[in-house]
Design goal:
The protein has two domains: 27-167, Regulatory protein AraC (Jelly Rolls, Sandwich); 180-279, Homeodomain-like (Arc Repressor Mutant, subunit A), CATH 1.10.10.60. By secondary structure, it is α+β, with helices and mostly antiparallel strands. It is globular. It has helices spanning 2-6, 37-47, 125-139, 144-167, 180-190, 198-205, 209-220, 224-242, 247-253, 259-270, 274-279; strands at 27-36, 53-60, 63-67, 70-74, 78-82, 88-91, 97-106, 120-122. A five-stranded antiparallel β-sheet has the order 1-7-2-5-8. Strands 4-3-6 form a three-stranded antiparallel β-sheet.
Length: 281
């Protein structure tokens, strides 16, 4: 280390240093573990769209992550970042028991983590060490100073993930073999702006409605009707928070039959009217 000190030279300008871009600070940090297939899939259905980042690290049991219309395999030792309002679900889990570690947080500006969008991340040794440090800080008493330490470690972890991404030559991961959820997500994306019911999907896939419902429940762990409804609500929540479209236009774009039906179903699902959700902090 002493040799490194000797390499430091006098600055050319004493008032201009390295690092002119202000770093964002992660806030409202949460860590939790999912250990069963049902808890992973059911919680993904119930949590719907939200403004938080979700960093998922697979500790045990391979599975697939569906982000919007993309499907990506996530192997043990890998991680993936789900961006705010990004539709997501999990399927093709190799066992009923699993260990997936989740870290959710808020961060502005959201563009700071845009390079990690839709990327499966292989973790370098520095990132793994920061994960361990993050867990240590999480288990410390959550007093003000410890909370700041947690935020600082998470920021370093996110920066390290961006470095891991830059070091990787891989672009999007290989597209896996076509799966039922992948096909359903593609059909829902293609039919954006139109009401879609189970009968439409069954006809497109040459299944009876009962057969499609059965095999979808087996693959996704949730009923197909609930999944479609979640997809609609998810899309509507994102449009309400990220665009200035009128509520009627949001209802149409999200695939609801009418603005009245949209408002009723949205209130039942979220506890808020579409207008209240748009303005609720």
């Amino acid at each position: 280390m002493e040799k490194e000190w000797l390499k430091i030279s006098e600055p050319v300008d004493y008032f201009s240093g390295v690092g002119r871009t202000p770093l964002p600070t992660p806030t409202s940090v949460l860590l939790f573990l999912r250990e069963t297939r049902s808890s992973l899939q059911q919680e993904a259905l119930q949590n719907r769209s939200h403004h938080r980042f979700v960093l998922a690290r697979n500790l045990e049991t391979e599975g697939h992550v569906h982000l919007d219309h993309l499907t990506m395999p996530l192997k043990p030792g890998q991680a993936i970042l789900i961006l705010p309002y990004q539709f997501h679900h999990f399927s093709l889990l190799a066992a009923n028991r699993l260990k997936w570690l989740f870290c959710t947080f808020e961060l502005q500006p959201r563009t700071f983590l845009e390079p990690l969008r839709n990327r499966v991340l292989d973790l370098g040794s520095k990132t793994l060490a920061l994960y361990e440090q993050l867990l240590v800080e999480w288990h410390a008493p959550h007093e003000e100073l410890q909370a700041e330490q947690l935020q600082a470690v998470l920021l370093r972890l996110l920066l390290s993930l961006k470095q891991d991404r830059l070091r990787s030559a891989a672009d999007l991961p290989p597209v896996p073999e076509d799966s039922l959820l992948q096909t359903i997500n593609r059909l829902l994306a293609e039919r954006s702006g139109r009401p879609v019911v189970v009968a439409d999907l069954a006809e497109a896939l040459n299944y009876s409605e009962s057969r499609l419902r059965a095999i979808f429940k087996e693959a996704a762990g949730v009923p197909l009707g609930s999944y479609i409804q979640n997809h609609r609500i998810h899309r509507a929540m994102a449009l309400l928070r990220t665009t200035k479209l009128p509520v009627a236009a949001v209802a149409e774009e999200a695939g609801f039959g009418s603005p009245q039906a949209f408002s009723r179903i949205f209130k039942q699902s979220t506890g808020l009217t579409p207008r209240s959700y748009r303005t609720d902090p």
